[in-house]
Amino acid sequence: MAALRRPCGRSWRALSAACSGAALTLRRQEGGVRNVVLNNPAKRNALSLSMLRALKEDLLHDVKSKELRVIVISGTRRKGSGRAEGPVFCSGHDLKELSTQDDVKHHAQVFEMCAEVMTLIQRLPVPVIAKVNGLATAAGCQLVASCDIAVASEKSRFATPGVNIGLFCSTPAVALGRSLPRKVALEMLFTGEPLSAHEALMHGLVSKVVPEDKLEEETSRISHKICQSSKSVLALGKATFYRQMAQDLDTAYKITSQVMVDNLTLRDGQEGIEAFIQKRKPVWSHSQDEKK
């Protein structure tokens, strides 16, 4: 058990504590970066209700701490694959939970919890990165689209194939329709055919595509670059970005102009400008306090 929770002296948290490695998610935090791993390869890292609850808990854990600067979500490897992650990032909902064996109330709980997790990602005060190495389908594709940044290996693919089994991917369509051009999203939804990693990059579903052996390096590079900035400034900027995207142009500029003024009142807003003028590195407080 100790080996599962603290490999290499680092603190891992297993939400389903079991020596067999049955934990649905694993969480490790180091140097401001929290890695959250979907850890149910036997079910292709499906977003069961239990998995969604575990993911929510990992995202919210001590989220206001100044030590937390960025969250990275990935999927664990299948036994014997010999790879760090993959071949499936996340296959979407566990269809056994959506069979007629369960009642409508349970089905509603699954979709409500999924929507809660997806919207939570964009409301967190830190950037969330999807590190994708393999297939992301249905709600798994929704998860990628919901993250602030997505880095994918060249082997990754993205699909919303629910139409093929009589369950249209309506909730994944919410995130897809806000990440992709409408006609691209609808083609995915109507046909169930996957996008390659490079097609996903071309259409804006992912931020970057790299060779599989460079995925960890590139994700770490982006994460550590984010860690160099003020958490309070990033939190303000992230919240404002999503808020203004839902507005018309004039309203968006009105909102963001006021936020720029508010940003300048923050201790870190003034610290950054003073450091630039003085040609030194800023010393961030990461607090929401205003400059006195």
From TrEMBL:
Organism, as annotated: Callipepla squamata (Scaled quail)
Function: May play a role in fatty acid biosynthesis and insulin sensitivity.
Protein name: Enoyl-CoA hydratase domain-containing protein 3, mitochondrial
GO cellular component, one term: mitochondrion
Classification via Gene3D superfamilies: 2-enoyl-CoA Hydratase, Chain A, domain 1, Lyase 2-enoyl-coa Hydratase, Chain A, domain 2
CDD domains, per the entry: crotonase-like
Keywords (A to Z) from UniProt: Fatty acid metabolism, Lipid metabolism, Mitochondrion, Transit peptide
Main location: mitochondrion
GO BP: fatty acid metabolic process
Family statement: Belongs to the enoyl-CoA hydratase/isomerase family.
Example of a GO MF term: hydro-lyase activity
Entry keyword annotation includes Aminoacyl-tRNA synthetase: no
Keyword Lipid metabolism applies: yes
Subcellular location as annotated: Mitochondrion
